[in-house]
Each structure stands twice: as C-alpha cells, then as structure tokens.
C-alpha cells in the first residue's frame, strides 16, 4: 500500500471537480477537518473531499477512484475515536453529512430507512411525534452511517442491543462501484449470507452505506432513574449480574468507580460518597418500572448497598444522574493541562469486577490517573486517561497502559474494543484477540476489495 | 462441480476408514439416512459418513477431503427442510450427533458453550436446575449446530431473537482444515468483521461449527397463555402490530387461519370458532404478565375480538394452546393420502395480512388446500401444502404455488424464507430477492472455499 504519484492524484481530483463542481474540495483546511478523529493520533489528511448528495454521487466517486486505485474514506461527523478517518496513504473522503434524509418510515414495522449522514439526534427529533425512538446512544451525536460502520453502542445497548442488532438491512456501494441491498426488510430471514452484519462494524473497509433500514422502539411510558453505592466494584458487578439473572430489563446500568465519583463531585459540586456507584434506568409502564426498581433495590441491599434512590420525575431523574451525565467533562477537569482520551475494553460480565479492579491496581502502580466508567450490563468499560500535552514520554506510558488493558481483557475472554473499533490504534490487539480468524477477514477483504481502496491502513491487514 | 471419479472416492474412503475405523461407514443405508431431509426432494446420498467425536476428528476429516477436493456436508439430526443435507455430487457427511457435550457453562454471563451435536431439548434438560433456558424453538428437536447453520428461529423468536442473536461466538473448521474462533466471549465487540454472523446461516457452505457459545435467558417466573379469534386476518395482524407498538413483549404470538383452525377442530375434537385465531404467550412476573394480558385484551377488543381467554395454570394453558400444539399433525390429517410439506415466507409485518390473504386467494383459485400458521410477530408464516403421493402433475402444481408465494413475499419487501433456509429448493428465489448481492456472496464463498468442497450445490452459485 503506497501513496499514488502526484500526477494520478491530480488527475483524480480533476475528474472529481468536473463531476461535482464546488461539491469537491481540495482545500487544505477542509481536508484536515476530514481527518479529524477525536483522537490524539496525528492527522493524515485525504487528497480531496466529495460532498455527496445521493447514492449516485457515491457510486460515481467510487467508480472514478476505483479506476485509479485511489483510496476512499467515508466521513459522517468525525466522532470516531481510533483513527478510522485518517488517510495514511491519501485518498478521497466522501462526506455524507448532506445525505441526511429520512427515505421512508414504517411505524407498523417500527423501522425507518434513512440516508447514512443523518445524526441520531436529528433522527430522534424527526421521530418525536411517532411514539417511537432510536435508542442507541454512543454519547456523541454521531451519524447513523458512522455508527453502523463502527458497530457503535453505548449506555442503552444492555436493553436495546448495538448497531449489530439495530440495522435490519442496508444499501451499500461496493469497491467496484456496484450498489447492492444486503437483505430484505423482513424482520428475520434465512436467505443467504448475512451481508448486513458483515458490513456493519467493518469500518468502511468493505463497502459504503448509502441507505440503512433500522429498528425503532416504542418510547417508554415511564422512565425511572436511580443511583446507589457499594463498598467494592465486585459488589456492584454482582448486583448487576443477579439482577439480569432475575430478568430485570435494565434500560441503562452504568458503573462509576470511586475516582470517577470524586471527579464528578469536584466538577459538579456534588456530595456523593466516593465509592463504586451504579446509575440505573428502567423503562416500562408504571407497574413494571416500580417492580424493576423494587427488585433491584432488594438485590443491591443483599450486596451491602443501602442508599438506593430512584425517581420517575424528570427533574429528580436529571439530578440523580447528574454525575453520570457530566462524567466526561468531570474526567477532563480532573486531568488539567492534559490530553485526555477514553479507552475501551469489554469482557464477559463474570470477569468485569476482576478486570476493573486489576486495571485500577495497574493505574496506581504506574502513577496514572484514570477514572473508570462502565456499561456494566455488557461488561464494557472506559478508562479516561490523560497525559501532559506534548509530552512524548508520558504519551508512551499511556499507550503502554492501554496495551496492558487490551491484553488483560483478551486474557479474560474479552475483547480489546467493545464499541470504539480497531481503526489504526488497536491493530495489534485484533490479531492478539482473534488469531488466525484475522487471516480469513483479510481473505474476505481481498476478495471484495482486491485493490484495497476502501479505507486502507485500518485493521492491520498484511499489506499495511 | 462434478462428481469425483470412483478411484478417488475409494481412496478418500480408505483413508477415512484408516483414520476412524468403525466410526467411518459407507454402508448404503447409513449413507441414505444422512441425506434425509424431511423433504420430498430426492435423496442424494453421500459417499461415506464419519461419526466425529471431537474437533480434531472434524479437522482430520476436512484435511483428508480437502486434499482430494471431496465435498463435505455437516449432519446434525436431519431435520432441515430444503435439501440442505443432500449430496448432489457425492461427498462425506460428518455426523455431529456424538459431539453433544456441554463444554462450559457460565451462569453469571448467561452463556453456555456446547458442541454442535447437542439438541435443544437435551441442552434444556441439562440446564433445568440453573434457572436459565435456551429459548429458540424451531419445532423439531434439532441440533444446535444445525440450527445455527440454517439461522433457525420459530415461535419464540419474537421475544428472544433467532440464531443470529443467540450465537455469541463460535469455533469452526474452515475449508482448508484450519480451526478458528470467530469472536471473543464478550457480549459485544467492535473488533473486526462479524465472522460469527457470516457463518451463522451459511448452511455449512463456509465452515463447520465445532463449538458454539450461546446466550441463555432466565426461565420466566410466570407464563400466561391465551387465545382469541377475529373476523379477518387483518384484524388479527393489526392487533399484533399495535400490541408491539405498545411495547408488549410477546413471548409467542401465533396466527392460525380459519382453515388451520378447522383442521385442528377435526383432529383434536375441539370446538373453536373457525376464524382467524391468535395464540399468545406472555413471560414475566405475575404483575407484568397480568398487565401484558390486560393491554393485549383491550387492543384485541378494539379490533372486534371479544373472546380472549388466558390462564397461567399449566393445565389450562395446555388446553388453550391445544390447537396450536397439534397444528402440524392436524394439517397432515386434513390432507389424507398426501405428502405434506411446510413452506416458509416472511414479510414486514405491515404487509403480513395482505400476504396471507392473497395466499389464501391463490390457494382457492388453484383448488389447493393449505392451512396457514404464522409467527405473526415476525411477519413469518408457513403454509402446509399437500399433494397426492407419487403424483407428479400435482407435485408440479405445488411447486408452482410455492414459486408464486416466494414472488409475492419478495414483492412485498420480504424474503422467500424466514427460517427454513435456501438449500436446494429456494436457489432461484435467492437471486430474485437479493439480486447482485448474491454475486458478492459467491465472491466470499470462492475466497473462503476455493475448491467449493463445503456443502456444494446449495445456494445456486454459478458453478452449480
């Protein structure tokens, strides 16, 4: 994989300019924005940016690029975290932000077909009066296409699943410029290979979404939010494990470790006990929400937590979850003068307490500060680690920490990334986690994109 | 794709006999049993059968076969319905029935890792005292490996999903004899391509499962079963659509058309009104089940159904669902002297009433008898059609009917198969449904199995 010679790059840019006029740009600041990654990785800018308005634009761009073996990188809003948008050997960024329409809505089927550039907040505004909503919430107001590409999830995945479950079918442009539909709109199907789920989470390396049909859910009649604290991480995790075994359908269940709670107290002027804390949310009708909260409270008590508070009143709910809602900013404030980034690991829930506790020990041993927050129902957690700006030695120590974290998660039967993806930064751990299976991924990649033009340099396949 | 010459076949059989002794058989009746399909398709027998005891046996068999380009067909219990087990160009059947052990059980994670030959009933017996169960119920007591291979589902998929959702990760032998793990045991992951879901539903054409880690669910505290009738299929379907929009988490919701009800009355001596009928099941605690039943009853009333009966008492529940439980036998009894088979189509639920009603009209116009039963929450339904034994002209009429049914489902945005798979019989409709996407499936197949030795002759790829 090498950068194309400048003459070829110029030729591709000329053809794109002819095709798209001022919807093509090779202005440096535009290109730089499109390698924005929400990461501390060095920007690797593409050679040009196409603002697509339609699937035809995407097909046209891919066909021009394919002819010259020019790399192509899809761009939603730029909220990915592992360098997915970087262009290590140049290429053309296709900006989907103007492909942000609802194509069709079927309330009876509880599905909506959208263009990939629509963001989850815009979609939920659009749906507001329908009684339905799109629950997946990765934090950022990401585009749905980007979320599908990284198999995003977040706080509500414990109840509503991840993008793996949310995408019913898709339309995508493949590396040769052909447009396919991955599946019918039927809720289930036994017809052929599951191309939908092959493309979801492939980080733009196998195809570019031009339409997605996604599942919606009824807006819950009643929402209850609650909070309680525990003596140990183990007590908190065991409370969640038993609750799930008792069929409590948590809508959200978030763990904050003692350091995260301290940071939130300092940032938001709260007076929470600096102990492992669970923030929970229940969805249902009044009776069901009350019963979920009562059962949860009982189980939490049996694990030594006696301060469970909950409310269905929106204002009180906001108050109870205030710490959780401000956690990212609190973490950043607790690491002043630092670059902060959020790492991501996920283990079977039976190993979560071990993994979090060992990670806390690791941080302490290495004199690092890293408040921890977890989507505990899924065994997924984040560590917010920071290092003094522009200090390479400190930066290296953080990378070594994330390496140990990935190894720890993998050794416990887990994954190096629950929801952020591989991108450029976790290439090494993909192989560590999945061994020879990565060879078969590469075989698929080579078969579907023989010239390796779709988002090259990600995943760490042999050529890279 | 052609049959190997007899000398090569003999050589492979000799090597397998040397490797496996009396766990290899080329006895004709054994081979014939292994092409059993629960279908009216002609048996196409394999050249030999290996009874595997371990993943090493599977690896060894695949390596011997791969050397000679000998086809390989996985066999569970032989309950597939579309000719998945036939060996059109011969080959070796690997019988997984002795690989039926539980490898490990993690109640905290609500997962179990099993060998593929274990059947769902055996697994549920094994789990009995754990408080957990494996909910997916395709009717037959299928092997879990077979269920994963065909992406099976059944009555409880509306609540618990299909094998697509049930399989967390797998171990599989690929066409070159290499053993891979498709994913970690973490509940979610953003690491790499979703090989798990690529293999699930691939009908043994991409790899052979040697272990599966599957999700379990808490055994519900209370189960309530109910039944009610409607004036039209549309009223029944609209009741289900509104109920799902109101967040009623049906555990099962089955539709029987008037002809199915008549057949059940005749077979079981029941006196149900011969009208479109819904059989429902709710899972939860006492309060939640009562609230689900009450809301459902209200919605059903609004659609003209005033005879909803339900009970949580096991004996009464069995009585209420008696018609549904005996439906297959009732359908067979209503078609005396006939070969009966069950076809399968699935549409977005918004089109289900149209699809069922048009199918009834089609049956009538063509003087065919075909009671209909549907997993209505998923838009999936079956028609039991029969034709006089050994009457080719009548058999042809039935095939023409299933062709019209597939076309109808596809034209409504649905699929030619919700849960039975493609096998040999639905090859034509796979292309009709998915167009060029099938080319990319074939590209993947060629890349992962270049000699086309894994279950050839299925899916209708170009070579076949």
Automatic annotation (TrEMBL), chains A, B:
<dbReference type="InterPro" id="IPR006094">
    <property type="entry name" value="Oxid_FAD_bind_N"/>
</dbReference>
<feature type="domain" description="FAD-binding PCMH-type">
    <location>
        <begin position="42"/>
        <end position="219"/>
    </location>
</feature>
<dbReference type="InterPro" id="IPR016164">
    <property type="entry name" value="FAD-linked_Oxase-like_C"/>
</dbReference>
<dbReference type="Pfam" id="PF02913">
    <property type="entry name" value="FAD-oxidase_C"/>
</dbReference>
<dbReference type="GO" id="GO:1903457">
    <property type="term" value="P:lactate catabolic process"/>
</dbReference>
<keyword id="KW-0809">Transit peptide</keyword>
<keyword id="KW-0285">Flavoprotein</keyword>
<dbReference type="GO" id="GO:0008720">
    <property type="term" value="F:D-lactate dehydrogenase (NAD+) activity"/>
</dbReference>
<comment type="similarity">
    <text>Belongs to the FAD-binding oxidoreductase/transferase type 4 family.</text>
</comment>
<dbReference type="InterPro" id="IPR016169">
    <property type="entry name" value="FAD-bd_PCMH_sub2"/>
</dbReference>
<dbReference type="Pfam" id="PF01565">
    <property type="entry name" value="FAD_binding_4"/>
</dbReference>
<dbReference type="InterPro" id="IPR004113">
    <property type="entry name" value="FAD-bd_oxidored_4_C"/>
</dbReference>
<keyword id="KW-0560">Oxidoreductase</keyword>
<dbReference type="InterPro" id="IPR036318">
    <property type="entry name" value="FAD-bd_PCMH-like_sf"/>
</dbReference>
<dbReference type="GO" id="GO:0004458">
    <property type="term" value="F:D-lactate dehydrogenase (cytochrome) activity"/>
</dbReference>
<protein>
    <recommendedName>
        <fullName>D-lactate dehydrogenase (cytochrome)</fullName>
        <ecNumber>1.1.2.4</ecNumber>
    </recommendedName>
</protein>
<dbReference type="InterPro" id="IPR016166">
    <property type="entry name" value="FAD-bd_PCMH"/>
</dbReference>
<dbReference type="InterPro" id="IPR016171">
    <property type="entry name" value="Vanillyl_alc_oxidase_C-sub2"/>
</dbReference>
<dbReference type="GO" id="GO:0071949">
    <property type="term" value="F:FAD binding"/>
</dbReference>
<keyword id="KW-0274">FAD</keyword>
């Amino acid at each position: 994989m090498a950068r194309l010679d400048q003459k070829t790059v110029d030729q591709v840019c000329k053809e794109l300019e002819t095709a798209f006029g001022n919807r093509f740009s090779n202005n440096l600041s535009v290109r730089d924005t499109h390698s924005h990654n929400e990461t501390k990785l060095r920007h690797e800018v593409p050679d040009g940016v196409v603002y697509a308005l339609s699937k035809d634009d995407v097909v046209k761009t891919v066909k021009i690029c394919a002819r010259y073996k020019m790399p192509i990188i899809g761009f939603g809003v730029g909220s990915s975290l592992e360098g997915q948008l970087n262009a290590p050997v140049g290429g053309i960024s296709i900006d989907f932000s103007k492909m942000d329409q609802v194509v069709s809505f079927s309330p009876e089927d509880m599905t909506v077909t959208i263009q990939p550039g629509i963001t989850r907040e815009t979609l939920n505004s659009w749906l507001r009066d329908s009684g339905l909503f799109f629950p997946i919430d990765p934090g950022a107001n990401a585009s749905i296409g980007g979320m599908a590409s990284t198999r995003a999830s977040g706080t509500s995945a414990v109840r509503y699943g991840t993008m793996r479950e949310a995408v019913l079918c898709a339309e995508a442009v493949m590396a040769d410029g052909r447009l396919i539909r991955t599946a019918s709109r039927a809720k289930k199907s036994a017809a052929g290979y599951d191309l939908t789920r092959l493309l979801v989470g492939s980080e733009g390396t196998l195809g570019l979404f031009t339409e997605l049909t996604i599942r919606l859910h009824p807006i819950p009649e009643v929402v209850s939010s609650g909070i309680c604290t525990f003596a140990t991480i183990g007590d908190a995790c065991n409370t969640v494990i038993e609750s799930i075994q008792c069929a409590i359908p948590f809508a959200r269940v978030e763990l904050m470790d003692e350091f995260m709670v301290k940071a939130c107290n300092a940032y938001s002027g709260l007076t929470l006990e600096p102990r492992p804390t669970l923030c929970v949310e229940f969805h249902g009708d009044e009776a069901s929400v009350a019963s979920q909260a009562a059962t949860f409270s009982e189980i939490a008590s049996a694990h030594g937590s006696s301060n469970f508070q909950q409310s269905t009143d929106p204002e009180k709910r906001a108050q109870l979850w205030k710490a959780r809602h401000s956690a990212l900013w609190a973490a950043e404030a607790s690491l002043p003068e630092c670059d902060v980034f959020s790492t991501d690991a996920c283990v079977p829930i039976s190993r979560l307490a071990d993994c979090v506790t060992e990670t806390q020990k690791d941080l302490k041993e290495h004199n690092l500060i890293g408040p921890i927050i977890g989507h505990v129902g899924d065994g997924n957690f984040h560590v917010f680690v920071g290092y003094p700006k522009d200090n390479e030695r400190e930066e290296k120590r953080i990378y070594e920490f994330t390496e140990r974290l990935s190894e720890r998660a993998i050794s416990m039967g887990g994954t190096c990334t629950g929801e952020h993806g591989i991108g450029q930064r976790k290439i090494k751990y993909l192989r560590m986690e999945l061994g020879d299976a990565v060879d078969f991924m590469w075989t698929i990649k080579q078969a579907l994109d023989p010239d390796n033009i779709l988002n090259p340099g990600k995943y760490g396949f042999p050529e890279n």
